[in-house]
Amino acid sequence: MDTVTEHVAESLVLSSLQLTSTNSANSSQTTAADNKEKAAAKPQEQEEEIDIDLEAPETEKAALAIQNQFRRFQKKKK
């Protein structure tokens, strides 16, 4: 695997882990009613469409690298 793919995979793992830890910290402090109020108050955000070729070898390598990094993180977490 080339270094660019490894770097991209590592960046994706780190950002997803940061989102996960942020979401778990926030979810413990808010209730379902608060979340419904916030969702109702926010205007509909337009989703950005990202076109990724899931059959590309680079994508498969990146996915494997992300999965491996996540498994290592889970092992360290225990």
From TrEMBL:
Region annotation (Disordered) ranges: 21-51
Q: Where is the composition biased (Low complexity)?
A: 21-32
**InterPro entries in UniProt:** Calmodulin_Regulator_PCP4-like
> Which PROSITE patterns does the entry link to?
IQ
Q: Which family does it belong to?
A: Belongs to the PCP4 family.
- Designated name of the protein: Si:dkey-46i9.1
Species source reads: Seriola lalandi dorsalis
| Lineage summary | Eukaryota, Metazoa, Chordata, Craniata, Vertebrata
